[in-house]
Specification:
The protein is α+β, with helices and mostly antiparallel strands and 182 residues long. It has six helices and four strands. Helix content is 34%, strand content 16%. Helix 4 packs across helix 5 (156-163). The two termini are 33 Å apart.
Length: 182
Amino acid sequence: MGTMISLALGRLEVDWGKNNFFSDHGALFQDSDIKQVPSYYASDDWPDGDPVIEMNEGLSKPLGKVLDRLELLGHTIKSVEHDYEKLHQFHKLEERPIPFSQLQKVLAQVDVNRVSGNYGTDYDLGEFVRKEILDRLSLSTEAHYYHDGDLRPDHWEIDVLLENFGANGALRLLAENPENRS
């Protein structure tokens, strides 16, 4: 089975990992943030029903208090935009599937208290965002062509970009919604 670790705002998982394969987000927290936090497990009627919730020791603090630490660690709006542009360069995307300003606006409108944690099960790269996130965020992109003229799968660019965007960038943009800060 193994040990799961996640970084979440309510039921919205921003990052997760298993066993030794996870990002360490400890810099966002302090010793005083150790407390009992909810852990969500699949129930017999998953994903249609509610998860089983158990309380376990973890780190927890409101996003509003994490925001200052994100900024101190260099995750400003400007740096998040820079990281977004670097992802385009890394994936050799000359056209932007959605501009950063649109992504920023959409994530700032997400109310993490209303996001369902009920997702499907296993996905390949890009599938999770396409099947679970794009409609929830009202994001869409046009299909583009590869350099050799073949059509890319619909939403390929934004799917891969958002799955590689980074938890700290997502937290920083989600923190633009004052409702998410508590």
